[in-house]
Specification:
Length: about 190
């Protein structure tokens, strides 16, 4: 290769890289992909599990845009709290999470207690190689829903407990599971 052509090759390579970057930002709108991990600070707050909704400095569970989540929204909508990506083992569960296991014999533990308005980090684990869907009965918590199964045995969801004290029942929403005893309650004080 001649000395003059070497510079041409370098500038051509630089041009191709710059073009690829420009095309990428044009396609994605300038947004770089993010995969936060436990305890990672984002502009919106702390993410306790990959894919889960962030928790703001003010103690609110928020959307990726920084707005308070709506616990009464339809699960999976932009304003609902987000369940985490599947976790591969129990060491990835946030240390402050309430840990529930769902199986054909029930939900263990079958109750837990929280303070009104507090951030609840809830870990749902599958305990019998079956699919389960964790849900609350109360419409004010309709958006707090977590699906698990043999391929993704652990997920985490964060939400703010209702400010109204009382007992909030939860259950497995897979047909037949509630009637066989997959039920429990969250007690808000």
């Amino acid at each position: 290769m001649e000395k003059g052509n070497k510079g041409l090759y370098v500038w051509t390579a630089v041009g191709v890289i710059v073009a690829a970057i420009v095309i990428y930002f044009a396609i994605t709108g300038g947004v770089l992909p993010q995969q936060p991990i436990e305890g990672v600070q984002t502009p919106q707050g702390t993410v306790v599990a990959p894919g889960a909704s962030p928790i703001s400095k003010d103690g609110l569970v928020v959307t990726p845009e920084g707005n308070a989540v709506n616990n009464a929204a339809e699960p999976g909508t932009p304003t609902a709290p987000k369940e985490s990506n599947p976790l591969s083992d129990v060491t990835q569960i946030p240390s402050q999470a309430v840990k529930l296991t769902m199986s054909s014999t029930g939900i263990t533990p079958s109750s837990f207690t929280v303070r009104g308005g507090q951030v609840v980090q809830l870990s749902i684990q599958e305990g019998d190689s079956q699919s389960h869907v964790f849900k609350f009965d109360d419409p004010s918590l309709a958006a707090v829903a977590v699906g698990i199964g043999p391929g993704d045995p652990i997920r985490v969801i964060s939400f703010n407990a209702p400010s109204t004290p009382g007992t909030y029942s939860f259950y497995c929403d897979v047909p037949g599971h509630k009637t066989r005893g997959e039920v429990g309650q969250m007690i808000v004080q």
